[in-house]
Amino acid sequence: GTLRLHFAAIKRAHREQRLPLPHEDPLVRRAWKGIQRLQGKQGVASPDALTRDKLIQAIEALPPTPRGVRDRALLWLGFSGAMRRSELAAVRVCDVAFRRQKGVDWVTVEATRRKTGDEVVLVGLRVDSPGGKALVAWLNLLADSGTALSMTATALDAVAKSTDGTALFRQVPRSIPGAQALSEQSMRLVVRRAAE
After folding, report:
1. How much is the pLDDT for 61?
2. How far is 72 from 92, CA to CA, in rounded Å?
3. Out of 25-29, 58-62, 133-137, 161-165, which region has the weakest mean confidence (pLDDT)?
4. CA distance linking residue 38 with residue 70, whole number of Å
């Protein structure tokens, strides 16, 4: 809003005076990211927004088919980690780990925040939580299907095009999980189907 407008005006004034651009300074960039994180996105949710309660209802209504198992894991992970479609599409099998901390079992996913400068965050789901159970069920289905599961650390930009088993979320042809990674557009369709 207002801060962004002022920042744009300052950049333009610097450009017109042929001065170094403030947004190129690492200190200014870090401060600006911090301001954006603190402010967040404000506003009122649109009437058709997928709220937490609607999402949980949608997840619970998914069928116990391979597609339903995948979609349940995808939606819980996306919700728990506040992930964008592009971030979900880039999750690799090698990004998933099981950990035990203070007597509690966790399934964790290293996710890359691509819009905020490739910042890596750790999304943790208790194994006994609905989201943890959904992710474990999807991993078990993949392992039991004989589908390739590659622990290779593929470049993030290549994951969505991969067919070698590196992508965590893949297309589900009929009843056997395939190796073709889900694209961002496919992620959008998963969310749309669940919201209907």
Report:
1. 92
2. 17
3. 161-165
4. 33
Can you tell me whether residue 179 is helix, strand or coil? coil
Strands 119-126 and 96-101: unpaired
Residue 71's pLDDT band, with cuts at 50, 70 and 90, is: very high
Please report the beta strands in 21-161, taking only residues with DSSP state E, as ranges in sequence order. 96-101, 104-113, 119-126
**Residue 94: how many other CB atoms lie within 10 Å:** 15
The β-bridge relationship of strands 96-101 and 104-113 is: antiparallel
**How far is 40 from 55, CA to CA, in rounded Å?**
21
Q: What is the pTM of this model?
A: 0.67
Q: Which amino acid is at 59?
A: I
Residue 121 has phi, psi (to 5 degrees) of -125, 155
Q: What percent of the chain has pLDDT over 90?
A: 13
Greater pLDDT, 173 or 15: 15
In the numeric block, which tokens belong to residue 72? 């349940």
Q: Is the dihedral of CA 168, 173, 174, 177 positive or negative?
A: negative
Give kind and range of the element (H or E) at residue 80: helix 66-80
- The residue type of 174 is R
HSE of 11, CA atoms in CB hemisphere, 13 A: 11
Buried b (16+ CB within 10 A) or exposed e, 144-183: eeeeebeeeebebeebbebeebbbbbbbbeeeebebbbbb
